[in-house]
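for the writeup, i need someone to sanity check this before i put it in the appendix. the sequnce is what the collaborator sent (i think, or maybe the updated version? ugh). structure was predicted straight from it, no edits. if anything looks off just tell me and ill rerun, i have time this weekend
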Amino acid sequence: MALREPVRYCDAIRLLGADDADVVDLIDRLVADEATDLLAARTDLVGFAHQALNRLDREAHLLSRVERTRHIAAAHSVVVVTAFFESLDDTELPFRLDNGLDDAAAGVADRKRLGEFVALLVASAPPLPRPQRSASDGRTRVRRFYLRRCKQLPSVLRGMPLWEDLDQSQRDAVIDRLGSALADRCVRRYEELRDKLAASFPEFGAWAALSVMRPRYASAPETPMGLSRLQHRLQSISTGRVPSAVRGALARSHQERLALPSGTQTGGTHVPPLSISYVNPDFRVAEITAQTRPHDPDWWHEHTGVRDDLAEFLLGHLTSPRALTHPLVVLGAAGSGKSALASVLAARLPESDFTAVRVSGRNLPADADAQALADRFDHALAASGGGNCDALPVLVLDGIEDLDTRSRASRSALLAGLERFQRERADGPDPVAIVLTCRDSTAARLRFPVGSVAVRLEEFTNTQIATWLSIWNRVNAGYFHHHGVASLDWESLEAHLPLARRPLPLLMMAVYDGVGNALRRLSAPLRETALYERWLRMLTDAADRADPAGTGRPAEAESDPAVRSGRIEQALLTASLLALSLFHRGGQVVDGATVAADRDELVRWPPNYARPLDPLRLACVRSTDALEGAPPSLAFTDPVLGDYLVARLIAEELAELAEARIRELRSIRPAPLDDSFLYALLSFTPLSVSGEVPRFLTERLRLLSAHVRDELRLALADLLREAGRHRREAHYGGYRPVDLGAAARDAAYTANLMLVLVAVHGGAVPLRELFGADAAARWRSLAHLWRSQLSPEQWTSLTDTLRVDDDGSGDLVVHPCDGAPPTDDPGAQTDLGEVARDAALLADGGTQRLLHALSPLVRLFGGDVTARDGGDVSDAHAVLALAFGSSETDDAELVACYERAFAMADALGSEERLRFIVFLLRQLRGHAHRLGARLAPLAARHVRPIGVARSARAAVRRLAEEHNEHVAAVRDVLAGRW
């Protein structure tokens, strides 16, 4: 049986007692309200619960991984309700609850009232602990569950004969003992049973976050490495089943890849394999909601705390029911170690219980829709031995940012399709867990499935850096000794700590320092672009020296610094053109012949030039021929290096353009700027599709002198004003990395000119200065051109990078997005959030006014109030129809609006929920004469009296009185008394 989180008590009993016909029959009768004597049945249920838990403990080794997860989830629901039964049994009351209820059950009204409570309790779904939440949060949620049940019980007693026999003091005592005091006793008993369950099933302890996190001392006794604790914990609870030959071979390939030395070797230093060098990072974790901003570090710091138990968290998530229905998203800045985590995780999962399938985003088919992507994953899982419950398939999709940026479907749509694929599999016999990795800069423009679990990797602490340094120095001790190079110490690294706190820059600095201790000779802290530049130049020179005959390196390069520098520049140009070929094709496979053809179209080498260095000789470039199932292609060892080289190439050309303008201003025969090469570079893909390229470009342009930046601003403004009026392909017409029409190329070119102009300005660009009096019309024309010609992902990247605002005087200003949400933000993870960002870039005042009008509903219910599922009414439509449009709404639609609105109330906080339900009951009371027979099932599901504590605020008590007044009126209608 496929169970969903949270698990209803009745479903849990049916699963755990599938072979006990009497218990299953009892549950069926309770749910159907055929047996109302709950307190007589509780003895059987409590006894069965303890028997089932003991049997589950004895027979857990017979269950598969997925079956074990489902049985533990069911056991927890049984534990929660059993604790309620046992605590209620121990409650001292001024009468015998058993006899009182038995006597009261003789009345039809009493039987109905008790039956409603019975059905509600048995069909309830207690909250399940989640590893992304703290133990205290889980306790609070369970206590809230008990409080709701405790508040309902006195209302059952009030209508029974025994209640009339009590005086007011006895009634107050009963209400008090069945209130928060009973809830507290329930929680204490629940914690006893919960801890017993955790002792039998360690993964449940991880769900409930029962392990206390270690204090974060300045120098911890041991830094967790390589997720080894995850592997050991999973092996300790393994089913012990023998994996198939295919699954075993796949697991060994993951483990061997982890143990292989890295191919990156420069100057004699060696990068240690991940099996010995992976340092478990600290992290933050949250569930994706409509208002989550997963790309924003400030949001994470405000809403989450730092955790250092990554292995324990992964243990809890991968063995929990949520892993079967929602993806786990691993986020982090470029170079933060997401891909390394994906590799280590795939290698640490025991093959007896898991089938890990790691897929790189760059190897997925180009232009695939959601269904094609799901079919590809399904095929990959089947080929790797997945597809059954013996071992849970874990699909690791590494690099969402590498998915095709030219697809007809946006990445958000692909993620939604991937979630549907996972949910469909969860309902069948072969569920699948999914882990995704994504850069922060890409996450800014994605809508992740709501309910997904997001993990953001933190920067290294001093202790973690020191641990990694000790491994680096130990692996390279022989090289240091034989070449007279000092090991990399803390003092040499301290000035560059902001960069060293990410694994990739830390590795690059270690390799850079390995050549003559270059790092300690620097006089100032390194910027990120400066580190990439120095590192790439070092790799280039080393590759050129390694085989002079093969690379064509002239002899004078050894003695002439100018020749050596020219060779390096030439090699970096070839590497940049490779990066550009990859960038323009947006995730498609690029082979060596294609790269060479692109290079020949863009650069004509003079005959007297030595042939350029082949980019494949660089240690940061690799061929993916060896990847199983992937066609031959070229790629960078880390995509961020390609992004830097793209930004470097464009920055060099922009500087050249500014210098040319300065020269023309001094010329007696000035000529128009020749931007044909710039057009070839910028007319195929918006730079914003990679969030790193604009960032690197901005940093590179800051290095230009002030007067060069000024001239560049003027030149870019001229080019933008004249865009589309003449073609610029005279010299580079043969360069076509993708087949685009003139309008699409103009859209990409003008968008990139605007991005570069904002980067050069370093902030806001007044559109009146750019386009004159008709700036608003010109801007909207440009923006609509972009929207019509760019792919969905490319357009979305622009809306996340640029925003247009009114400067207060009626003029428009375009500026880079600073991470802050737009005005009246409907939520980053919603359809309306996308609409808001579109309107902000299009300067669409009409849409912005509509969003402002909806903002009260958005703030209360979240940003998806306009979403429609399968043609149903939206949340906003339901509320507004009930408030203002009921006369034009037919009865069937009116009932549908009430159903939708009552469901909306469940997602609200306690006081907001009470206020909203009072509003709904007020409207329902006025519609009673219209709904007639349709009102009965609606009221049975949603209309019940409530009670509030005497300590509640007066406003809340007044709301409760109004609520119960409306309930009484609706019940009078049902009884025919109106």
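Residues 639-666 form the longest helix (28 residues). The first strand starts at residue 265 and ends at 266.
thx in advance!!
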